[in-house]
Design brief:
Elements: E1 2-9, E2 13-22, E3 25-35, E4 38-40, E5 45-47, H1 49-65, E6 70-76, E7 82-86, H2 106-110, H3 116-123, H4 132-141, H5 145-148, E8 150-155, H6 156-165, E9 169-171, H7 172-175, E10 181-182, E11 187-188, H8 190-196, E12 205-207, E13 212-215, H9 218-224, E14 230-232, H10 238-244, E15 253-258, E16 261-268, H11 275-279, E17 283-286, E18 292-299, H12 302-311, H13 316-324, H14 346-356, H15 365-390, E19 397-401, H16 408-418, E20 422-424, H17 429-439, H18 444-451, E21 455-457, H19 462-476
Parallel strand pairs: 1-6, 6-14, 9-12, 15-19, 19-20
Antiparallel strand pairs: 1-2, 2-3, 4-5, 7-8, 10-11, 13-14, 15-16, 16-18, 17-18, 20-21
Helix pairs in contact: 10-17, 12-15, 13-15, 15-16, 15-19
């Protein structure tokens, strides 16, 4: 029996999950849960990195108090964001949040230096204004003092691992989200670094998932009561860890990592970098075992989460009940429309979109919720169709992993829309993938499949959903 600790931090909260591998089966237990709050200095949106470090210390202290003997610790987080450390190794300031609007318009400015087509040919990464490339470009343009004097630039999981071990590394899967990495070479592009005024030495040594970064420093050992426990590079990007936990047999599957963001894609041996993949804004990110995660970002439950924040204390179960009482496909929207990226009021943005597209204005929570679920499923169908055209193999099923795997209504809608079986689960895919990468076992997906419960949803009402898809395309117009 071996114990591993996964630190899984998302855009709103973090968890410490204990994984116990015993006899070819995995059991998990939540050790700690903590908030991840965006802080503001009056100008920028930032992450409180020292607070996250303290929460990890608290989780490790709980492990020590419970006398749990852990083999290692691994950290995964969201992608693209990074922290700046001085030449003395100290954190220069809190890292900016990807939702900060300081990068608005930055891709267009950067493409006057290097054309978008060339950037995509180098990196195979979809253009999103908050990618690390554009964050660094914006900081350079503003002559940011911290970037001007930076020693090392560490992506968030690497920064937290450094705070535990004192060693600066650059884990491959998290680096691949930056739009600065060449997936063919596995290293940063000198052309793009030169355009930013940076050097390879500004980043840590590239390491692959599963590599030991170091051990807890004497100071962390003192604070936690643990010994020199190993800290390993998990698949540092949370989606890479989540995909590692897909309980699939065979390779002819697609995955949908469903949460605040939805990420739909496939695993491939080589990057897919073509004019068609660029036009559809697909991305090539690093996966485990040398694989490529060929995928597309879709705005997921962010829409409903932001509406709920305005509605107060209302449960998902009640919202689903209210949604089922509303007219199917009565209101449709493109979940990836820029109006929904970071509005002051999501419900107001929703109404503005409906007015602009000639649809009725929602009056009840159920109408908003039904529109979100219908539209997400139809957007999944659209992306799934593009994915089938680009994939080097036939796609026979779709695995839904992450928190969205709990949403049975949306899972059924998705099966109806995409027209193939949908297998939902595990919910704790990111932590499970993190743990399995740390473990280094040879057959992780077999162990996961034997250890977790899944539920299969078969397509229903296919013709009705075909008609709805045509309506969706007319309304969204792309």
């Amino acid at each position: 029996m071996k114990n591993f600790l996964a630190i899984d931090i998302g855009a709103s909260s973090g968890r410490a999950i204990l994984g116990v591998l015993d006899g070819g089966r995995l059991a998990t237990e939540e050790i700690a849960r903590f908030p991840n709050r965006i802080v503001r200095d009056g100008v920028h949106w930032m992450w409180d990195l020292p607070a996250l470090r303290d929460e990890i210390i608290n989780a490790l202290r709980t492990v020590a108090e419970r006398k749990i003997d852990i083999e290692s610790v691994g950290i995964d987080t969201w992608g693209v964001d990074f922290a700046l450390f001085g030449k003395d190794g100290r954190l220069m300031r809190n890292p900016y949040c990807y939702r900060d609007p300081y990068t608005d318009g930055e891709p267009e400015r950067f493409f006057t230096q290097i054309p978008a087509e060339k950037v995509y040919d180098i990196t195979g990464i979809q253009v999103m204004n908050f990618n690390s490339l554009f964050q660094l470009s914006a900081l350079r343009r503003e002559d940011d003092a911290s970037l001007r004097d930076v020693g090392k630039i560490l992506f968030i999981p690497d920064a937290l691992s450094y705070m535990l071990t004192g060693r600066m590394v650059c884990e491959y899967t998290i680096a691949s989200t930056s739009q600065m990495l060449n997936p063919r070479t596995g290293e940063f592009s000198e052309v793009l670094l030169d355009a930013l005024g940076l050097e390879r030495g500004n980043f840590g040594e590239m390491v692959l998932p599963g590599v030991q970064i170091g051990t807890l420093t004497p100071e962390v050992q003192r604070l936690t009561g643990l010994g020199p426990v190993a800290v390993k590079a998990a698949a540092g990007h949370d989606t890479a860890s989540a995909v590692a936990a897909v309980p699939a047999s065979g390779g002819n599957f697609a995955y949908l990592s469903s949460g605040t963001w939805s990420l739909m894609g496939i695993e491939t041996e080589k990057p897919i970098i073509t004019e068609a993949s660029r036009a559809m804004n697909f991305t090539n990110e690093g996966g485990i075992g040398g694989t490529v995660r060929f995928l597309k970002n879709i705005c997921g439950m962010w829409l409903l989460e932001q509406c709920r924040a305005e509605w107060g204390d209302v449960t998902y179960d009640l919202l689903i009940e209210e949604a089922l009482a509303e007219e199917p496909f009565g209101i449709l929207l493109n979940p990836d429309d820029s109006n929904f990226s970071a509005p002051a009021s999501m419900t107001a943005a929703f109404c503005e979109y409906c007015k602009a597209t000639g649809q009725k204005i929602p009056e009840r929570r159920g109408q908003y919720t039904r529109a979100i679920f219908d539209s997400l499923a139809l957007r999944y169908r659209q992306v799934f169709g593009w994915l089938k055209d680009l994939a080097p193999f036939p796609i026979e099923k779709l695995h839904i992993i992450g928190g969205g795997a709990r949403n049975k209504l949306l899972n059924q809608f998705t099966a109806n829309a995409v027209g193939v079986p949908v297998i939902a689960g595990p919910v704790e895919s990111t932590a499970i993938g993190n743990i399995m990468v740390q473990s280094g076992v040879a057959n992780p997906r077999d162990i996961i499949a034997a250890s977790v419960d899944t539920e299969t949803f078969l397509p229903q009402d296919v013709l009705t959903w075909d008609d709805a898809f045509e309506k969706f395309l007319k309304i969204t117009k792309h």
